[in-house]
């Protein structure tokens, strides 16, 4: 049973990474076919909302759901702007102007960006005396350096033989996209990094929401529904042609359903369950697996070429990621040790206070009886 309990979270996170890898491939093909990133996000958030509402109803609305105040509602609105609308629109725009491998590699800077923003908002302390602080600082610098190298330097192509798999539809879409518009790798990389910043801001705001409103399904359903409205309003102004909203193309319909159900609803459930079992740090460790899976799928299905700059930058980003995670894990263990040492002291102080109160209570009746005897 113990082995099964350790294996299931591992299996869940592998499934999540496989799901995200499929999203990068299908979304890239959908946008190559002419689907606008904003339209894709609208459909994704709409489908995700419909998929999550039943879970919110059965697991939270039928039970003791926390009170939804105006302050919490405003924070959820900010979460929808940063974590859903801003993050996903920017990511898909960046993906349309780069490659799935570059997009996945740059998402690994998230822990480093989150750490920098947490220091700015004073949720983290920046020091260099402890090894944990040194690891987080060094990891952040390495992550940023790898991201810069990956974004602005390509170098020669790595001599990997072409895949024997020939997916005619993917090859046709790639050629069509190349003839219609030339993607800008530098612009795409910068936009993907901007999406990482937006996501990191969401993480900080979401931490505040989780403290006050412990109903993850409800907050996620509200966030997705708000994002649907936000993106729909913007898309109605910028993408007003009916053909741009059409899902008659199979890849567009598959991408919309896949991203909404698999990458929003199912992924959220599996990640939440894994965090409860193993913690947030355990979940973060699996993010480089997505890069490996997408690199293989992009080479095998899309015929993507791997450049020296992309490979070196990806290695630096993953190395920096694990340095930040190691520093955070060590910091948490040090804090736990301090709490364990302080807990017996607190218990002894409580015991001393209780003994003093009891002695005072025993002393009061004696004083009263002596007073009565004196007055009698």
Mind explaining what this structure looks like?
The protein is mostly helical and 376 residues long. It has one domain (2-346). 81% of the residues lie in helices and 0% in strands. It has 13 helices and no strands. Helix 2 (37-61) packs antiparallel against helix 3, helix 2 (37-61) packs antiparallel against helix 9 and helix 4 runs antiparallel to helix 12. The N and C termini lie far apart (74 Å). Mean pLDDT is 79; it is low at 368-376. Its main location: membrane. Residues 11-151, 187-325 form the EamA domain. Residues 343-357 have a biased composition (Basic and acidic residues).
Q: Spans of 5+ residues with little confidence (pLDDT < 50)?
A: 368-376
- Tell me the series of helices and strands, N- to C-terminal: HHHHHHHHHHHHH
Shape: globular
Number of helices: 13
The proportion of residues forming helix, as a percent range, comes to over 70%
User: How many strand segments?
Assistant: 0
Which structural category fits the helices and strands?
mainly alpha
Key structural traits:
disordered C terminus, WAT1-related protein, transmembrane helix, EamA_dom, 376 residues
Question: In terms of topology, how is this protein built?
Answer:
Layout: H1 2-32, H2 37-61, H3 70-96, H4 100-107, H5 110-120, H6 131-152, H7 168-180, H8 185-212, H9 216-238, H10 250-278, H11 280-284, H12 287-302, H13 308-375
Helix pairs in contact: 1-10, 1-12, 2-3, 2-9, 2-10, 3-8, 3-9, 4-8, 4-12, 4-13, 5-6, 5-8, 5-13, 6-8, 6-13
Keywords: Membrane, Transmembrane, Transmembrane helix
Protein name: WAT1-related protein
Main location: membrane
